[in-house]
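Protein record
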Amino acid sequence: MAHKMNITQETEDALRKANVPEEGIAKLRETEVDDVDVEKLDLDSLDGIAGGGIYGIKVWAPDDWRCSPYDNMTWIEGATFIKGMCDSFGEDVAIDICNKRYCKSVDWADYIHGYGPEYAAYYMWSMAYSVWHG
């Protein structure tokens, strides 16, 4: 069974902002989606999906802000801990530990490998801070 694709006004506005022509938006509105093409995911399947909802830092975490999901540490304490893991066990082990201990995210690898453990901690703590205070 097929049904019309429902796109919201917010989606249409985002498409316009991305310079998608009106014809393309209209065509998207007319697209039919077949129910057999829709894959329903259970909670275990969601573990394999990357992504988030804040799309970047809205507000950088202050130096004294303690993040309860990150062992109630400040980003500075977290950076010291992550740097110690990198120095003792290597970046890949530190990334694995961060993914298991704090939250699963490709950002750990991207930022630890690309910019170092200090920036990775600052970024990840700030992502959490942005959710609560952004």
